[in-house]
Amino acid sequence: MAFVDHLLDKQGIDSACTVVQIFKTWRILVHYMLDEDVPLPPNIVARIDLPDVTPRVKVALSPGQVAAVAAAMRKVAPRYEVLIWLGACAGLRQGEAFGLKRSQVAWNHDLLHIEEQRQRGKAVRLKTKASYATLPVDHFLIGRLLHHVSRFSEPEPVSPGAERRRRARGYAEPPDEGLIVTNRHGRPVLISDFHQKWRKAVKQAGLPDRTRFHDLKHFYTTTLGGSGKHDPKTVQALSRHAKFSETWDTYAHPPLAVEEVMVTVFGTAFSHIDAPTTSLPNGSTFLACASSAS
Prior knowledge:
two-stranded antiparallel ribbon, 7% strand
């Protein structure tokens, strides 16, 4: 109890959720000590009053709101617009969208190979085992990815003066890691930079201030579940949730997330958006419209 009181009084800890998380971690340590026959009295972590945690309010986004925040991001930071489509139409978490590479997209087969995420610019393991998957996606999303890659495959050019200053201070060009999305310097996206742009886009789109990027994943699962085209277990696999309850309580595996499944519901949801025309890596023309099956 004294430990929890100390956390509540400690400067810099202003979140009840943080206090509870610290306590849970400490409780694991105490249980481990008991299991290892360390002489401690039983129930040492019981009957401790913790602060009330206000649950995070999820924002239920409509297709129009998703399109609005994507359009706003197109103005705020055009390179980051496709991240919104990856969240809304593939259910990728923020770090997974940052870490998606061109080599992990099966362009002609409408598949994404989810293999890593980026944190602080570095490649790290995914959240859970269920997160690793070959994920079938809507043809609509492939079109958005192709349009993005055709425009933003290189860092933004700088003026001759800036180039001279770079050389003078020993500037090194960033290595090409094959990432779908990079910042304007060609480096991995940092969460601090994206969060700043996200807040601006949310405000310009007129969405609630509490709207988070993770709400796009809620939109993804809800749209799949509400379409009537996929059974509940398929929605769970597409959402890459380890437990069935996580899909339905929180939001509305095999190596290939779902065998022989074609996802078309997002092309239908965003059918009002102009479809960009671009080229596939093999040179053929691609129209990013909803598939005929939708």
